[in-house]
Amino acid sequence: MKQESYALFKSSDIQTILKTLEDELKSRNESPFWKDKVIPFSEAILSVLVPLREANMLFNPEGMCADELTPELFFKWSDFVSLKTLAFTIQKSNDAGVLLRTTLDEAACKNYNSIDLNLLGAYLARYSVNLEDEFLDFPISNYNLHQGVSNVIKSLL
Predict the structure, then answer these.
(1) pLDDT tens by residue, the chain, 157 residues
(2) Cα(65)–Cα(151) distance, integer angstroms
(3) Rounded to the nearest 5°, which phi and psi values hold at 5?
(4) C-beta atoms surrounding 64 within 10 Å
(5) Closest by alpha carbon to 87, among 35, 145, 132?
(6) Nearest to residue 48, comparing CAs of 90, 20, 96?
(7) Strand-pair partners of 65
(8) CB 59 within 8 Å of CB 69
(9) What is the dihedral of CA 31, 32, 33, 35, to 10 degrees?
(10) How big is the CA angle at 145 (ends 34 and 129), to the nearest 5 degrees?
(11) Cα end-to-end distance, the chain, whole Å
């Protein structure tokens, strides 16, 4: 990973991170197919991770505390199953008014502020993720597609 990637994820806003990814895509002359997938996918993930970073409430897919937003944490959440789990975790947390499903300090979790899930929800819905029932599966082809998108993003960073 480039050292700049760590600084980017640690403190930049969503638009700056997306612009960097877009510039890297252009400089690498990636296929238009991937260009059309990488930015919306990244924006969907970051729409939740950046607010969690700003609130000092980052956690990984296993619910363990994460001190900072790193490219590695981003990639853990970029797994399509993990991303679906993140959406449901945040939705349940929004409903409860407290951050759920994590091992973060209970007092910190009570300071949770609702996170807008519009971008992430719309993105997941586009790929046949049922947003009503967490336990319903989605087509394996969508999982495979997103593994490819993650691999392209890894190559950019």
Answers:
(1) 476 889 999 999 999 999 999 998 888 877 888 878 999 999 999 999 999 999 999 999 999 999 999 999 999 999 888 999 999 999 999 999 999 999 999 999 999 999 999 999 999 998 887 778 877 676 677 767 768 788 888 888 7
(2) 25
(3) -65, -35
(4) 11
(5) 132
(6) 90
(7) 59
(8) no
(9) 100
(10) 120
(11) 6
In sequence order, the 6+-apart residues with CB closer than 8 A to the CB of 98 are 109, 110, 112
- CA 83, chain centre distance (Å): 6
Other C-beta atoms within 10 Å of 58: how many?
A: 22
**Tokens coding 136:** 């319903």
